[in-house]
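tool=predict chain=A
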Amino acid sequence: MPSQGVISTEDVGMFLRSLNCNPSIKEIQQVCQICDPNGEGSIRLAPMIPLLAKLMAKPVSENHIKDAFSVFDKQGKGLSIDEMRKILSSYGEKLPPEEIDEFLALMEDKCCLDQEGQKSKFISPELFSVLVLPKQDT
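tool=predict ok
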């Protein structure tokens, strides 16, 4: 049975994402190397707190998301599911195919809507940015 206040190094990425962080694979590896220097496979949460503060302090705005989206959306019509699949599997850190499929299913359900709220074949940058940003407490 795992000790309280300890997580497996395999669960670090999931743990960080549950805190609305969006760490890169490199950042996850750095956290593991710093917090588990002997490679024992487990991390005590207390030493992670300073690292968590750094990861959580990286604000991303809706405009950042829309600007990044527009790099690929040259025509301003949105991105098709196929275009998004190509982007996710070709640029930056490669996601496993299962994660891409899961993400695209969510995009198709929540972001492929036109201005009247009808199904569209393109991912809306506005809906995409709202979906990927952490929810703000009001």
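The first helix runs from residue 12 to 18. The CA atoms of residues 30 and 51 lie 10 Å apart.
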